[in-house]
Amino acid sequence: MSEIRIRKPETISEAHSEPVSTTDSSSVRQSIPSPADISNVRRFLLSRGNSAIADRAFGGLMLACAICIFVIVALIFFELILQSQMSWHKFGLPFFFKYNVDPNTGAPLFWDPVNGTFYALPFIYGTLVTSLIALAIAVPLAIGMAIFLTEMSPRFLRSPLAFITELLAAIPSVVYGLWAIFVLVPLLREHINPIFIGIFSAPWVVKVFGWTHLVGDDGLFGGVNLGLGFFAAGVVLAIMILPIIASLTREVMTSVPNSQREAVLALGATRWEMIRIAVLRNARIGIVGSIILGLGRALGETMAVAMVIGGTPQIQESLLATGNSMASVIANEFAEATTDIHHSALIEIGLALFLVTILVNSLARLLVWAVTRGAPARVN
Amino acid sequence: MKAGMQKNKVRSAVRATTDHLVTGLAILATVLVVAPLIAIFVYLLYKGASSLNLAFFTQGPKPEGVAGGGMANAIVGSGVVLAIASILGIPIGIGGGIYLAEFGRGSHLANAVRFTADVLNGVPSIVMGIAAFALVVVPMHHASAFAGGVALGIMMIPTVTRTTEEMLLMVPHSVREAALGLGVPNWRSVLSITLRTASPGVITGCMLAFARVAGETAPLIFTALGNQYFSVSLNQPISALPLQIFIYSASSYDDQRRLAWAGSLVLIILIVLAVSLVRYVAGRGILKGAS
Prior knowledge:
The complex is a heterodimer. Chain A has 2 domains: about 1-50, no CATH class; about 85-370, MetI-like (MetI-like fold), CATH 1.10.3720.10. Helices cover about 70% and strands about 0% of the residues of chain A. Chain A has helices at about 1-15, 25-30, 40-45, 50-85, 85-90, 120-150, 155-170, 175-200, 205-210, 230-255, 260-265, 270-300, 305-310, 325-335, 340-370; strands at about 100, 110, 110, 115-120. In chain A, a hairpin with a 4-residue loop joins strand 3 (about 110) and strand 4. In chain A, helix 6 (about 120-150) runs antiparallel to helix 12 (about 270-300) and helix 7 crosses helix 10 (about 230-255). Chain B is mainly α. In chain B, about 75% of the residues lie in helices and about 0% in strands. Chain B is flat, with a radius of gyration of 25 Å. Chains A and B meet through helix 3, helix 4, helix 6, helix 7 and helix 8 of A and helix 1, helix 3, helix 4, helix 5 and helix 6 of B.
């Protein structure tokens, strides 16, 4: 009886809306009561029409929306390739590692829109250097904070701290840039950079580490101290990716089962040993994932970097020198570019950025996903 | 025997010290992170609040060097661009979220969509700008408010999709079953029962996406381009708040810098509202209480 009941609405509504079709098997028809027998509620519902078509259409529409996301990614990819074709054909793969030499001075010449020289090497260098500075500053602090929040913090502090990190992760990049121009850059120039310059050019440091070529006047902190440059950009990036790495690391650490902690504590471990053995070891894949995700963000971050990096296409060892990153050169030059080849070269940089961030983000998502949603991490 | 005990004592002393040391380091890291962040935040609030006045909302930009002026044209421009972005991004985003939560649950396609949305979320905003440039500006041969809206709309989709999915998944099964049990067609049950139950969450998700793209500058630089004058035309270059902040940040005039700070404050207030709303809705368990 109940089986027939379930089938009823479809069959009846068909009969209701069209003349009774003769193809229906008579055995089913006989078991169905005539329209007069069905209750008022049911008649009311049936009067609202056949839902099979509407359901299918609705499902299809939602599916189309979901497919849209694929289409968008494919379309972006396709358009970037199409628009960068000119530069691709003209410079080929050497676009990313070659450079011309200035005939007069002998200095390397990377990027000269006026004379049509476009090689992206200095921007790749700038992106890598600023991202590495950012990671070097942000990762230890973020992991320390995550450990504090998950394992040590009193309960009443957790929620406000999490709220603040969430808030800061959402502040627009241009606002960080504004802050960096007017507060961070003067601060670096007046107070922080002199400390580093002092350390890196102290006589005994030069004597001991001179062979690395990282110290002294042409080392990491040599040259003119403008405040602007790779170091300032790296510091801003660090501030911007800290909340992301911290909150994701916290999430991963929270997902380590408590039984693991209890087991280690029961063996007589101190709290730090418990964190090291039970938490960090189990969560390490996820932590690496969150760091990579932070890296992905740092690679693509545009406005704050564009505002403090200085905007010159050069490669210099000094972190105090000005430069440009892949994202910031697009932001700085695209609107002013007049020649097609200039546009095309900038779009090719964008294409490279797109591919790299997709790669980095996919990797990070897989790692984080493996820890938080997939099977529990292996215990060695 | 005695030596062994001594050794143990030393070892446990070392372990205890390490433990304290690490605790101290973790606290130090937290302070080092939180203190500057709070300082930045308070500084932004202070700078913005001391620069904000009524003229900011009512007047357009004055020529360089002339005192006064406001960002009314940029606020209107942001409104136009964001309206286009919302019209494009929110329906597709919600549709995608409904598919993930109601139709494709557990299927390979849904996993792929979810993954693609996450990846799209990580694509740098400047690349979105180039994509919108190639898709809209190149065929139209000039920058326009519409192009800026397309860039921001694409950026809204992944956020809206993922929050919609999450919120729909929080709706208890019994609600869906009750609707279907009454004979409501599936599409109706999804739209007026499930989505409606989850609507506080879905709306805050949309607000969050809205607030995020409201602060985006990079995709607008060469799509909306900026405009000195009042404009609401979709076919013309248009100004936007973050774009104007970016332009004014490089200005040497105090008045323009002041406007940039005030503009930042407006963006920050928008962000704070959106983030607190999300926390309020998700934390209070409005959805769970609905069962």
